[in-house]
Amino acid sequence: MRLRGRLLPLAELAEVLGLIVRQKALNHRTGERFVYCNSGYFLLHLVVERASGVPFEGFLRKAVFGPAGMERTWVRDSRGFRRPGLARPYQRVADGGFHAVTPGGWSPLSAVGSSEVITNIDDRGRWLEVLRKREVFPAGFHRDMLRQGRLRNGKRTGYGGPCPPIGRHRY
User: Fold this and answer.
1) How far separated are the first and last CA of the chain, in Å rounded?
2) Angle 83-62-69 (CA atoms, 0-180°, nearest 5)?
């Protein structure tokens, strides 16, 4: 998260809520412009926790990760996050090399709900298979996930819709 030019580590709940609450007005009228923003996802994770009565990761484990067979996927919910066998991320440094980033300093734009799902390549493959087979989520989920938004003037937002192909692979 960037505050007055400073990068902050994994955002704490109070920090993120404080930023959201301090915004007193919309940036523009609804439907006139599209600007991507993660605060809705952050708030959604709080709604999921309150409605389900369990932590966000517990809900995802029961509703998504478990049914998908994703046993090595977690939600990083604290600066001290550790799991057995978890690879450490690396970051490019000024001399062109790389150094390991300590847990809690992985992503300066981090907040549970809007990011922080950590997985491995096998579980990533399982996730893509879930999306391909369309078995875990309710009817209409995939259609809605792939639909681009439209503004009041009829123009598409450019957000949503199928992922662009990567080489010969399509999702």
Assistant:
1) 30
2) 70
Answer yes or no: pTM beyond 0.90. Answer: no
Residue 146: both structure tokens together:
């792939």
**Considering only CA atoms, which of 138, 135, 140, 159 is closest in space to residue 149?**
159
Cα Rg of the chain (Å, integer): 18
Cβ proximity of 148 and 156 under 8 Å? yes
What residues form DSSP beta bridges with 2? 7
Dig out the tokens for 84 from the structure.
Answer: 């057995």
CB count within 10 Å of CB 73 equals: 23
- Residue 129 structure tokens: 């298979």
Instruction: Report pLDDT digits (tens) over 71-127.
Output: 999 887 765 667 777 766 777 888 888 877 755 544 545 666 666 788 888 998 998
- Using CA atoms, how far apart are residues 119 and 22, in angstroms rounded to an integer? 33
Alpha-carbon gap, residue 167 to 152, rounded angstroms: 34
In whole angstroms, what is the distance from residue 70 CA to residue 63 CA?
11
